[in-house]
């Protein structure tokens, strides 16, 4: 791997009570890449994700985005710095339209507050117009422009998973973290997802995904980190990882057993 | 289709509302004018609750406390210290908003039922304070001699004049609130009600917004309190207790929590119901409880939206049958 690391994680550890969920993990995500974290159930993938997103604080270790130390920063502060995420269980704003969901994604890219809104100041109207146009652009990016006015909760599940990606992309992140984007999708939808991930990378956004579907990961990720029992056991390209005996034992061997 | 119907209905309803508000005092008898003044004042409170509960999803069972704080600040400053009533109203709003700001920090550490309990406790503490701080508030017997509001030579000393003052304020606040909910800020509020973690994931400062909406609702309540004491020219702690907080919630729920204009409807409906049941004593409390249950079970969007949906469903069925 060449290039500069966008995200660097050093000696990252997290314990919940006595349970060690993540133990001294080092990892770097190269700028402009598609990277993935894989591992069997309970390997600590989601914990790693939540630590980077700022949902909870690490017991030990450091997280850097570029030169900036992220430790101690709130989730919303990290979004402002350029980290956006999706959730395994989607978490759309169900009673808002698809468009409004993506419009909330423009929050960090806009300024107007209570006062501007209350008196409909010209700049608030201009900004609202801009939010609308940008949101439509991101809806179209994931191919959901035609569903703009539908309630998010009534959009089919497969498309909901695309809608959360549009919402996250609307924040204009440097790093987009996708938590199990393929879960619950059929083969056709997974192909579309893969195309979308490549399109997002081509727009200049670095992508980090946590994914159960090894097949999808092998076809989409340039760099793969393998976790098991909270520790990093391997990393490398798809080919390297697939040949690594530790990975076969921990991950693939488990399925064979 | 539905969107267009709602859109045209809204413009139509708005114009009708403004005309109705302007003409009412010429048509109805004086008793109703005074009732409508009270409804206007209560609407200011209900709108604040709609923003807080309906849009942001945060319960407050102590809203009457802010109403009372505004009322007492206005009354004490203007009656006991000779401060200009408008200035007193402004100071009251700043003080009430400031108090809301301070209590919001411990209170919004909590969620759901715990938040409800904390606001309930806060409301009760202030209600006790209104009664016990009698060197300032006049205690249970109250404080009289609150001056009328006036602009230049125009003194708002009759129901007829006061009606217009109150309803101009109500329409202004409704306009402002409607603009807020239809904005970036409004979307942020709704996203917090929907899913706080997801709201954070797009960079929305959840606790900051909760605090701001809480303060805004408190300022609305303070203005309502000021308008109330300058109308009666008298204040006592009696109207600012827990039961009134509950009644406000009933009004907001009946009107439709997530509907700014529904606030007028809910407030009016509940006030008229309560007036007509007056001679039966405490019966209105039972009826409100029942009403709250019925609305929550059958029309969770509130009466306004619920009836509109019902109307559309009936119309759609009629059209289907005609075919």
Describe the structure.
By secondary structure, chain A is of the alpha/beta class. Helices cover 40% and strands 24% of the residues of chain A. Chain A contains ten helices and ten strands. Chain A has helices at 45-53, 75-81, 98-105, 114-118, 122-141, 157-169, 187-202, 214-220, 238-243, 245-256; strands at 5-16, 19-30, 34-38, 60-65, 68-69, 83-85, 175-179, 206-210, 223-228, 231-236. In chain A, the strands form two sheets. A six-stranded mixed sheet of chain A has the order 6-7-8-3-9-10, sandwiched between helices. Chain A has a four-stranded antiparallel sheet with strand order 2-1-4-5, with helices on one face. The model of chain A has no long low-confidence stretch (mean pLDDT 93). Chain B is mainly α and 323 residues long. Chain B has helices at 2-27, 30-55, 63-80, 85-107, 112-132, 134-137, 159-181, 184-194, 196-201, 206-232, 242-255, 262-276, 283-298, 303-322, and strands spanning 143-144, 150-151, 154-155, 234-235. Chain B is globular, with a radius of gyration of 20 Å. Chain B starts with a helix and ends with a helix. The model of chain B has no long low-confidence stretch (mean pLDDT 90). Classes of the chains: A alpha/beta (257), B mainly alpha (323). The A-B interface holds A 53, 55, 74-76, 79-80, 84-87, 91-96, 100, 103-108, 110, 112-114, 116-120, 124, 127-128, 131, 149, 167-168, 170-171 and B 3, 176-177, 179-180, 182-188, 190-191, 194-195, 197-206, 212, 216.
